[in-house]
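Listing S7. Sequence submitted for prediction.
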Amino acid sequence: MRRSHKPGFLMTANWDSGVGYAWWLMESYWAVLAGAYDGQYQCFLAYPTISTIPENLTKAPVTIVREDFSSFGVKLIRQVLFVLKHRIRVIYFSDKPVRHWAYILFRLMGVRKIVVHDHTPGMRTPPSGIKKLLKRALLSIPGIKADVCIGATEFVRKRLIEVACVPEDRCFAVPNGISTDLPQQESIYQRFNIPQDRKVIVTAARANRYKGGFFALDVLAELSKNGCNNWHYVYMGDGPDLAGLIQRAEELGIGAHVTFPGRVNNVLGLSQASHLAFHPSSGEVGYSLSILEYMLCGLPVVVPDNPSVCGATKDRITGLFYSEGGTASAAGALQACLHGDIDMERMGILAKKTVRDEFSLSQAHEKLRSIFSNFIQRP
């Protein structure tokens, strides 16, 4: 690797370069920052392991290296040596603690700014009493905390302030965004041989328990018991629990109304030809990229009322909320959509407009550039 006369700007990944899925968003952030700071820094992107390099990164002015920054501990000596060798001055971490004693070592090796971007899911309890005082005391140790903390949504930004006790003036939100370009619509009925008299409900997610697929099947079984059978459910995604989901659908007696095609191409094209989306996961970061994609496709979205999930959806405006974990509540929301009790077309139009106006990828990129521009140059 050729040494540069410029100081280094290090961006770090926590997974293999070929993982894909939602990591495409972080990849786009790395490419944008590399383009913005190429003239000032030599930009590095460190992967723990490298298989295939994403295409957008092959075109970016960034040096991709195999160096494991996914965790600290036993790997710290190699990390410190890398920082020293390449004169790293800025580090952009994904999903790392807002404070860590390793940050002190990095700063001793010349690092001037540390930015942490938090995409981690879930609700957490704000500390109180002694625990809150201790957290604040730890953050007061010189060099131990990140200079800037970014939340993937407004929900995460507030969590950084209320739970991690990071000063508010260090916390920002870069709302997750997606490209607003849509592929050509494809008939989901023809692709999966679905009867034309059924309304299609879609979910696009990894086939694992965490994503709520088993809960979704329980809800659909409840829907069937209520005499509502004018639907067909398509769960697009592969994963370790795919076979278990197929088996569960048969056990519940709804196998003829459910399709599990595994990982498919043209999810957005197929979604545009559907009627509504069901998001059964209860652990997100304010909203998932899948929710934004459903909305962009003009689909009303049925989501749990957990604020860590429904942040992009407005109840009875762009979708319907149900009580988290409530089978009957979720079945009722789906039934209202299927029976025409609400104006589905209007909700779909407003959902698409919301994504284009508030959650575009270009807006996310501009917000990220703005944060770095304001804070990287500060002494």
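Caption to Listing S7: primary sequence and predicted structure tokens for the chain studied. The two ends are 30 Å apart (CA to CA). The mean pLDDT is 93.
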